[in-house]
Structure formats: structure tokens, C-alpha cells
Amino acid sequence: MKFASVFTAATMIAVAACSQSPEEPTDAQATGVEEAIAHDGEPTEQHAEIQSLETQGAIPAKFHGVWDYEMGTCALESDLRVEISGSEMIFYESYGKVSGAREDGEDAIVDMAMEGEGETWVQSYRLSLAGSGSDQRLHITEATEQKGPSDLPRKSCPA
Fold first, then answer.
1. Helix (H, G, I), strand (E, B), or coil: what is residue 143?
2. Is 116 in a helix, a strand, or coil?
3. pLDDT tens digits, residue range 117-145?
4. Taking the domains of the chain in order of start, what are their residue ranges?
5. Which of 20, 90, 97, 135 has its CA 20 to 30 A from that of 157?
6. Bridge partner list, 95
7. Burial class for 112, CB neighbours closer than 10 Å (0-12, 13-18, 19+)
8. How far apart are CA 153 and CA 39, in angstroms?
9. Per residue in 7-29, pLDDT tens?
């Protein structure tokens, strides 16, 4: 009988704990994003900081697309072709998933968890754009190297 009373009390406590609704956000928490925008519609510094945190860790959109060596054909079998999205870089014989990305001026420093040909490794790249229009080139270099043009500039491939 004593066991049944203890069991019943424990069951009631567990049910009560599970049935409590989660805490409601405070007014400050609920309106934090809205307060980040000034009343006249102009973004504030806080709004810019929130947007930066939302995109942190992704390759910036200006680098997205398919790129190939400037003398390449943009064909799938081109060994210098690279396909870039916000979360990955796909090379001819390897693949990299973004583990971190940050802006460095106009460039992006991208930390990648790479795999290819049965191996895995960690790699950090600097992505830079030079030129404009049809003359725009993507330069992919080691993040630790001093900024400069790469030996293998890549052109944008047609979609």
C-alpha cells in the first residue's frame, strides 16, 4: 500500500511537470527584431547586426554559381570547375561542406570540411572577386596566404 501511494504521488508530479506550458517570451524578447528597425523604416545598427548573425556561416551570395578556369569549357568533366552555394563547394573530385564563413573586406574566408578520393580534411579558402561583367574572375586561394590573385582565375559559367 505504501508503494502504491509513493508511485501515485510520483506519477502526479510527473504529469504536472509535463503539462506546464513553456514560458512565454517577454515583451522585449518578442519585439527584439521589430525594435531593431527604426520607426522611419531605416535599418539601425542593431538590425544590421541581427542580419549579419543570420547569414554568418554561409558563403555570401556574390560567390554562388558555377565557375571554371578562364580557359575552361564549364563542362561537368572540367577538372577546375567548382560549384558554390551558401553551404558547400563542389569540385571535380572533392566536396566541401561549410563549417564556418566570415567576411574579410570584400572577400570571404570559408572553412570547409572536405572529402574526396576516400580522404577527409579541413581546408580554409579565401574567395575574392576581381573585374566586372564578363571580365569578372573568382580567385580561390589559401586563407592563410596574403591576399592576391590566384594562378587559376575562374570565370562564371552560364546557368
1. coil
2. strand
3. 999 999 999 999 999 998 999 999 999 88
4. 2-55, 61-156
5. 97
6. 90, 115
7. buried
8. 45
9. 344 444 443 444 444 444 444 33
